[in-house]
Design goal:
Chain A: It comes from Spirosoma arboris. The complex is a heterodimer. Chain A is 39% helix and 12% strand. By secondary structure, chain A is an alpha/beta fold. By secondary structure, chain B is α/β, with parallel strands linked by helices. Classes of the chains: A alpha/beta, B alpha/beta.
């Protein structure tokens, strides 16, 4: 896909996100909008995914012979669901069921309802990196050379388990794992620096033995280039951590530069105002 | 009363180690994880023979549970091991979300459960783990009684698809289960036929129940003794069949009364066939330092306690 096509897909995903959270008057639009460019870049370009003869994606829980993605900050499920649907893992129309009774699109990603594309539940923070480490270890044992990606939040870095995994992964030389931290500087109660300062995350990961890269997560070109660099750095003994600067609420002006839209759904007027800023490119569900 | 003999006393954790050694040779998908307690878990043989299938996680149990969950994706069968306290209460949320809710084929195998850990004291003597684990949807909870049964259970859970919590301990106890007895998850083992009272015991208390049966027989009481090695799924049929006959029951376990085997049996009886029930268990208390025998005596987890409860519950029938 060209950068232009990816940008267009991202616009549609952002429309999906605000419509999904509006449709059920709950959910987390802020971080979802901020991570849209990354997930679109991963699923439509960077990751090697299993496909059939017609080039349609095929979901296989084992992830054997393909790259795998783990969403640790499960509350940004809207962006994951939209990207999975738009990539062909399940019908786009199913996005309308988000957070509703009997839906496969639970508030936070889950496997109990067998939604294609989700391999483990997340939502209780700090756990995804460990699961990704297990998946990466499994690939090593099975001699599968594909990569494992894991997205985490920056607020999530306050969880202790993250640092257990951060020590384990380089120690076990899981150089097939690429962790990405959504560095938007915001969490529910306010700026991350104020709530509990993470200090220099890049320096911390480096000290733990990771190769650290930085990128602007809202510039598709830069995202693609950094993911390529990360892939090239894999397999050389160290895991890779990308500190990804993003703007929470990216793409909707009144949702940006604040933590207020972390977990708040837009009302009818706000939805209209948001959609006016986001081009419909692939057709609304 | 049927006579049970044993040739030697052995620790149940060594049964786990022996089971792992056998799995290491028979099942190439089995992987062992440990949080800095390799010798305590008796993993030496497995590690020596399968160094590439052992993952030392360090003192980081939360990560270990997550890594185990991730390993299942590629069809591996992870056995995540540590002390019972650190493999249950310390990592409850990790087990809940990454293992139980995600239905991952992780075997959480924990030693040093209960009071018989002894001198380390209450910080290490978990007495709530059965309750925590059995309340997780989809979790299988197993508490075998001796070396042979623990070894058989270890081997059996590798062939079962789904999350399992396998609990065992440190002290040496009589090894009386026949070495060739197959382990059936969820199927109680009938140890003695009796008509006066049903004794349902689990783990280290099973031998105490057999000792109690002998004492009761001397007093003319005919006790039915059943080994409930699987707390969940519970063998309701065996429990009800027995109590239909005897009309009353005693449960015995090295665990809190709240949330333990006694609770599970009480639920089955109350819902299906209300009958007098007495429980031998720790009564809403933490443990403390002491030798295993001293602690079992002080907290009333003995054959004598089972006898006393049996006599009391029989009185309640009238």
């Amino acid at each position: 896909m060209t950068t232009n096509e990816l940008t267009k897909a991202a616009s549609q995903v952002r429309r999906d996100i605000v419509r999904m959270v509006h449709g059920v008057a709950s959910g987390h639009p802020g971080g979802s909008l901020g991570c849209t460019d990354l997930l679109v870049s991963l699923y439509f370009q960077a990751m090697e995914l299993k496909t059939d003869d017609q080039d349609s994606v095929v979901f296989d829980m084992s992830g054997t012979g393909e790259d795998m993605f783990f969403l640790s900050n499960g509350h940004i499920s809207p962006v994951l669901y939209s990207v999975l649907a738009r990539r062909g893992y399940f019908p786009v129309s199913e996005l309308a069921t988000f957070r509703k009774l009997d839906s496969r699109l639970q508030g936070h990603p889950a496997t109990a309802e067998h939604l294609p594309g989700v391999r483990i539940a997340s939502g209780s923070l700090g756990q995804g990196l460990s699961a990704a480490a297990g998946a990466a270890y499994g690939k090593k044992i099975r001699k599968d050379s594909h990569l494992v990606y894991c997205l985490m939040g920056d607020g999530e870095q306050q969880e202790g388990q993250i640092w257990e995994a951060a020590a384990f992964i380089p120690h076990r030389k899981l150089d097939n794992l690429i962790a990405i931290i959504d560095f938007n500087g915001q969490q529910i109660d306010g700026p991350t620096d104020v709530v509990l300062n993470n200090r220099d995350l890049g320096a911390k990961y480096e000290a733990f033995g990771w190769t650290v890269l930085h990128m602007d997560g809202n510039k598709v070109d830069e995202v693609l280039a950094t993911l390529k660099a990360a892939k090239q750095a894999s397999g050389q003994g160290s895991p890779i951590c990308i500190i990804m600067k993003t703007e929470m609420g990216q793409g909707v002006d009144f949702m940006m530069h604040t933590h207020k839209w972390h977990g708040t759904a837009p009302n009818n007027e706000q939805l209209t105002a948001a959609l006016a800023q986001l081009e419909e490119t692939l057709g609304d569900y | 009363m049927k006579t049970y003999t044993f040739t030697e006393k052995k620790d149940t954790r060594s049964g786990f180690g022996a089971g792992m050694a056998e799995l290491g040779r028979s099942n190439p998908d089995v992987v062992a994880l440990c949080a800095d307690l390799v010798a305590s878990l008796k993993l030496d043989t497995f590690i020596k023979e399968n160094p590439d299938r052992f993952i030392q996680c360090g003192i980081a149990e939360a990560n270990m549970i997550g890594v185990a969950a991730g390993l299942t994706l590629s069809g591996l069968i992870p056995f995540a091991t540590t002390f019972a306290n650190f493999g249950s209460s310390r990592v409850y949320d990790q087990i809940r979300q990454a293992v139980a809710y995600s239905n991952k084929n992780v075997k959480i195998c924990v030693s040093h459960a209960g009071l018989t850990l002894g001198e380390d004291g209450a910080t290490h003597q978990v007495l709530e783990d059965i309750g925590m684990m059995k309340s997780l949807p989809g979790m299988t909870v197993i508490n075998p009684c001796d070396f042979n049964q623990t070894k058989a259970a270890t081997i059996a859970i590798a062939d079962y698809e789904g999350p399992v919590y396998l609990r065992f301990g440190r002290p040496v106890v009589p090894n009386f289960t026949p070495a060739d007895q197959p382990f059936e998850i969820g199927k109680a083992v009938h140890l003695n036929e009796g008509a006066d009272v049903s004794i349902f015991a689990t783990g280290h208390l099973v031998w105490q129940a057999l000792e109690a049966g002998k004492i009761l027989a001397e007093q003319g009481v005919d006790a039915e003794i059943i080994n409930i090695h699987t707390i969940k799924p519970l063998d309701k049929e065996a429990i009800l069949k027995s109590v239909y006959k005897t009309g009353c029951a005693v449960t015995a376990e090295e665990h809190q009364m709240n949330g333990g085997l006694g609770d599970s049996v009480a639920q089955v009886l109350a819902l299906n066939h209300p009958a007098p029930l007495e429980m031998v268990a720790v009564n809403d208390s933490f443990g403390e330092s002491g030798t295993p025998d001293q602690l079992m005596e002080k907290y009333g987890l003995t054959a004598a306690s089972i006898v006393a409860k049996a006599l009391a519950v029989i009185q309640r029938k009238k």
